[in-house]
Amino acid sequence: MVTHEHEGYLWKWTNYFGGWQQRWFVLKDGSLTYYKDANTTETGCRGSFKLEACNIIVHPVDVLRFDLTTSSQRIYLKTNTKPCRQKWIIQLGTTKANISEEMPDVATVALASFNEHKSELKTVRLLLSEQIDTICNLSNQDEIDGEKLKESQAMINELCEEFLKTLDSCTSNIVGGVEGDKDGVSLHVKRPSSQSFTDHSPPTPVSLGSYFPPPSVSQDGDNSDLLAVQTPEVSSSSPDSSSTPAPPREDEYHCAGSKRSTKLPCTYFSNVADRFEDLYLRGDAIPTVAFLDACVAVPKLLLTIGGKALITLSIDISNNITKIQTKQKLHPSKSDTLQALIHYEIGTQTTHAKHSATVALLWLYRELGFVKEFMLSIAEAAGVSQMGTRFGECYDRTLRPHHSMMSRSIYTMAGKAIPYREDMLRALGHDGYDNTDTAVLTDLKTYAKAIDTTIKYIESFYANNKLLS
């Protein structure tokens, strides 16, 4: 009897007519294959996917759903229970990570394996966060459901074991790692959101626009080696303070946003791991991975404040992120920065090819422009409850000129379904008190202005290379 790495029934989204259909899935030899049911495995499959070409996406809202994305399609899957989804995600992630270890070149093995294990760690972190939220919600109930609590505890124990195993694999890659670069590929540690990172002297840039975070202030107070750039000081007042710092020079690194005052209470944004405010930018260098990590948080934000009204925009943003991620993984040595990746496509004359990073980034730039406008509109609409008109105005200024008639109709309907402003603020952490109101509004403006700083660099780069049309 043939043994499989994993198999079982999953719900697969087919189309709007068929909806969710149950299919038998088999994970074997690095491929995920599905059949109509368990009795038809000998008569031919309905489809098959190589995991090495897939990204595993944990759904930000639906605790039973996860997606698989390739360069050309997205597969929507659901399970019947959370433990079942967790087991499938762990099995898929482990199999995907192990595929890279079977590659022939030693240097490529170490680099690819490290990246896959790192991706798996992020997935496990998301699942852990879900279980922690579940336990927190249970603890706030008058009568605690013992069965659900035991289930969450068991799932957390399983996730911790998987986390430790994956972390051990990552450590093995680093210790045994690559002494130098393979075809110019280097491992760059992205600056964490806490804004504290180890001071390492950067290697020689390997490609146009290569990105290296500036060194941090040394612990002993000696800052003589600090780059000639300082993160602007921000007071505890609103970002609209009249004392605006001088704009940085094009050749200087600077933070895209301002530090959050520790005096403000926590809001939704406090729990966002990768924020635009934490990006280090330079005129010719926006770090690709860090930028995409910050973008990944945007769809969840939109669904949090807008629900179904903003689901189309959320999906569009996710799809464009996936396209850029795919190109970045295909050409890692040429995509340290967004500018380097686009220059590569300019050089290979593929800027207008299907699923090109150039077109995807152009649309992502436009979509982020709308997000920035709408976030500021929410923050500044004091006394306004109905946000449909504000939504339409933001859409008219940003996305409408580039959309087809069909897309315009969809966004017109979305504007009519936008929640009330007070509901959106409540979803972001406002509990009715003045201090949380100040914190949410401040965080909204800070987030929007950091997006604005980032997309202005993209706009300038596209304009200089005549790519805006």
Description:
- Helices cover 46% and strands 9% of the residues.
- The strands form 2 sheets. The protein has a 7-stranded antiparallel beta sheet with strand order 4-3-2-1-7-6-5. A two-stranded antiparallel ribbon has the order 8-9.
- The chain is of the alpha+beta class.
- A hairpin with a 2-residue loop joins β2 and β3 (31-35).
- It has helices at 82-100, 106-139, 146-176, 288-306, 311-330, 338-347, 357-380, 388-398, 405-416, 421-427, 434-464; strands at 6-13, 20-28, 31-35, 47-50, 55-58, 65-69, 74-78, 254-255, 280-281.
Write the topology of this structure.
Elements (H helix, E strand, L loop, with lengths): L5 E8 L6 E9 L2 E5 L11 E4 L4 E4 L6 E5 L4 E5 L3 H19 L5 H34 L6 H31 L77 E2 L24 E2 L6 H19 L4 H20 L7 H10 L9 H24 L7 H11 L6 H12 L4 H7 L6 H31 L5
Antiparallel strand pairs: 1-2, 1-7, 2-3, 3-4, 5-6, 6-7, 8-9
Helix pairs in contact: 1-2, 1-3, 2-3, 4-5, 5-7, 7-8, 7-11, 8-9
The first-to-last residue Cα distance is 58 Å
Alpha carbon gyration radius:
23 Å
What is the number of strand segments? 9
Mean pLDDT: 74
Would you list the SSEs in sequence order as H and E?
EEEEEEEHHHEEHHHHHHHH
Q: Which strands sit side by side, in order, in the main sheet?
A: 4-3-2-1-7-6-5
| Count of individual helical segments | 11
Using the alpha-carbon principal axes, give the shape: globular
Main sheet makeup:
7 strands, antiparallel
Kindly name the structural category.
alpha+beta
Estimated helix fraction: 40-55%
List low-confidence stretches: 101-111, 173-251
How much of the sequence lies in strands comes to 5-15%
